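Entry 14: structure prediction run for Glyoxalase/bleomycin resistance protein/dioxygenase. Input pasted below.
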Amino acid sequence: MSMTVAAEARAASAPTPALTVAAQSRWLCNGVAAAPDGTLFLGLPRFPDHTATPSLVRVEPDGALSPFPGGTWNAWSRDGDGRETFVTVNAVHVFNDGTLWVVDQGAVGGQAVPGGPKIVRIDPRTGTVLAVLRFGDDILPAGAAMNDLRLHDHMLYVTDSGLGGLIVHDLAANRTLRRLSGHPLLRKPEGAAQKGKGGRILADAADRHPAVASDMIELDADGAWLYWATPTGPVRRIATALLTDESLTDADLAAAIQTIAEIPTIGGTAMDTLGNLYLSDAENRRIAVLTPQGRMLTLVQDDRLVSPDAICIDGQRRLLVPASQLENLVSGAGGDDRTRAPWQVLALPLPRELAGLRLGEAVTGRSPPRGLSNIHGIEHVAMTVPDMEAAIRFLQEAFGATVLYRHLKLTDEPLTAADVGRINGLPETATLRGACQMRLGDGANIELFQLTGIARTEAAEINDIGLNHFSLFVDDIALATERFAAAGGTLLEGPNDLGLNETGAGNQLWFGRMPWGTWVEFMTFRSPLRYDAGATQERRFPARG
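Run finished. Output tokens:
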């Protein structure tokens, strides 16, 4: 559906709740991300005259800012290596996997730092660095600058605001493509000027104007369309399926690009599940909404929105807006730094509608459920074995399975029916001695149980009806179990929060029994898992959609 703005489209506004201050920083802040439990993280770039910064901080419950994740990551010095420290953080995000993604441009004052350019994925609860993505010169040639990113299932998309271009990384296949490198449709249009409040053209002391290439990036809820813009506009888009088709040249891709809308100077964007595109309008100090029908509406306007930057929508439908003051940096204010501390992150509860237009939820990289697609497939199967460690060795040797974590070790206190029977049906005569989660190739994960107090010591034969249980990975555990019960299934107590290695906001399970006695477990995950030291893989989750 085209979102081209019609000539007669005009700005419209509607009453909305007032902006409130969600966080304040004594360092320049241009990005914010919200973890599943609501904890905020701020991106603090190392810009000229603003090099004394921890780069990334967590906002504590009392409003204090803590360098995150700590250690060397927040302690880069000008002559230091950038491999395990943040150099210039330019984007922070939390997507459906519940982890914190950080884009480090890895350059200061236009000079690349050895090992600096990278994407870092962090557990927001523990600060554990889960992965660091680095790319070679074929993906990040000289002059490239990773700017922002979006995730859909296993596909990661990154803009290059230095040369202009799109980086497409398949997390499952560990394969990366650079597309449309340096193409004019990915660069600032000739004659366009980046502007501040009231249309003031930004320039430094030598009257040089910023020339930022492809910067803002969004994906629609299905991950089918990728949108981008330079700060001066326009907004353009392309089908993501084309970007991964290696038979297509850049010329082929350029011919498929759609120009969506001419826009004022912006600092950031967000998109909701109904296709509304939110724009940080730096010229008018407002947040505008570009609708799928091509209307431009004003959501909120406030003088505190000085260079509103990388906005996001959190899980509670709050719009979070850092007022970065970038128009007051030396590069835009004639060589003078006119920024003033503190920097504020402002928040606005999204109304359900604006000028008669429905507003949606945050786009998080998870395809919206459609009918039966709320159930995505079997996530794991479970087996009770007489000797858990012997079974682990067999599965490793026979099939190359890997241990993810032992969430109940044989040295731990056993669990009884009083502890877990109401949740998973453990009978009063039995005790749960051990539990382990393993991964087998690219199929369902395998969970092992070791019990005592049970009569049989061998697995069920083919003439025995029923499995131990199988588990379904779902988006909405209440919806899935409601359908299950309506069809004749019996539910135990639930939903139940997961514990131990699986503890996290939104991580839940709910057991039920089919009419003939087979157990089924519904599971949903919103927060990252904690893996044992030495684990070489992550737990597999079925693809959505």
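Notes: Helices lie at 240-243, 250-256, 388-399, 417-424, 477-486. Will compare against the previous run tomorrow.
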